């Protein structure tokens, strides 16, 4: 694991966008695994800015998103489909035929998960997978307790995740209780993984991901076993790790 400390959210977004840009420049037809949530918004903004300046070309890029709420689709303001289009895809020259998000409106979960696994396989594999992290250490929508051998599957969202994500909805009751998510197995098959985290409320999840035991109770901890993971986190998200580092250096708690 390579861990880069960013000063703040802005710095984190620029660093993450630089890593993604490098991937696009080195492989113009790369397959990018994309994420939603507040963490990647700044990264997407930065990539859009560089695209508008003429520094980036997305015309041959394929995108594959991690997850989608089951029951929500393009007409729902809170769907990940809308999030991706509003925050990124509509502002770059990606071919929309090459953009992929699980279809939340397909109620036959077996059919949809099978289709999505095919999409991933046919793409030739994800070159770079961007990840945020949930407060409980989830990646994509792989909640604590999910086994590591899963491909795309139907998830029953945990109460903690429904509560955390209710900030994007008018009320807690409106948050869907299920989602389609790439599984840990699919995520681990990506050639490169870039995880971003910002804010003190992510400090425990980041600490457990990097320093804790590898356990399904902290889904992101499996990343310790991937051979090409980069974590870009701001000082607040790294605070528990930095504190421990200080203790180890100084020999005592200050
Ligand atoms: C959601 C998404 C995750 C994301 C997480 C954290 O549950 N499914 O992919 O990483 O939220 O979101 P945020 O970046 O807003 O903290």
Write up what this structure looks like.
The protein is an alpha/beta fold and 254 residues long. It is 34% helix and 17% strand. A seven-stranded parallel beta sheet has the order 1-10-9-6-2-3-5, sandwiched between helices. Strand 9, helix 7 (203-211) and strand 10 (229-234) form a beta-alpha-beta unit. Helix 1 crosses helix 2 (41-53). The longest helix has 18 residues, at 9-26. Residues 35-39, 66-67, 132-134, 140-141, 161, 165 line the site of 2-amino-2-deoxy-6-O-phosphono-alpha-D-glucopyranose (GLP). 2-amino-2-deoxy-6-O-phosphono-alpha-D-glucopyranose is lined by residues 35-39, 66-67, 132-134, 140-141, 161, 165.
**Amount of helix:** 25-40%
- Helix tally equals 8
Low-confidence stretches: none
Query: Going across the major beta sheet, what is the strand order?
Result: 1-10-9-6-2-3-5
Give the CA-CA distance, first to last residue: 28 Å
Radius of gyration: 18 Å
Strand content: 15-25%
Largest sheet: 7 strands, parallel
Q: Note the overall shape.
A: globular
Mean pLDDT: 95
């Amino acid at each position: 694991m390579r861990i880069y400390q960013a000063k703040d959210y802005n710095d984190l977004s620029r660093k993450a966008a630089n890593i993604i840009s490098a991937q696009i420049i080195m492989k113009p037809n790369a397959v990018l695994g994309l994420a939603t949530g507040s963490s990647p918004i700044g990264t997407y903004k930065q990539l859009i800015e560089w695209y508008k300046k003429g520094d980036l070309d997305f015309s041959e890029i394929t995108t594959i998103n991690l997850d989608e709420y089951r029951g929500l689709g393009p007409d729902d303001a809170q769907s990940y489909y809308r999030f991706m289009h509003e925050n990124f895809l509509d502002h770059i020259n990606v071919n929309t035929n090459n953009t992929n998000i699980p279809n939340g409106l397909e109620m036959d979960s077996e059919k949809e998960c099978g289709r999505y696994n095919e999409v991933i396989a046919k793409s030739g594999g994800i070159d770079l997978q961007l990840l945020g992290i949930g407060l409980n250490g989830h990646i994509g929508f792989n909640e604590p307790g999910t086994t590591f051998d899963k491909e795309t599957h139907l998830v029953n969202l945990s109460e903690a995740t429904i509560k955390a994500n209710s900030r994007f909805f008018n009320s807690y009751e409106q948050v869907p209780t299920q989602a389609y998510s790439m599984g840990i197995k699919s995520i681990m098959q990506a050639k490169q993984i870039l995880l971003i985290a910002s804010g003190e409320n992510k400090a425990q999840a980041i600490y457990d991901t990097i320093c804790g035991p590898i356990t399904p109770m902290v889904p992101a901890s499996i990343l310790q076993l991937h051979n090409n993971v980069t974590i870009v986190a701001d000082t607040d998200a790294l605070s528990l790790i930095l504190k421990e580092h200080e203790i180890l250096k100084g020999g005592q708690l200050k």
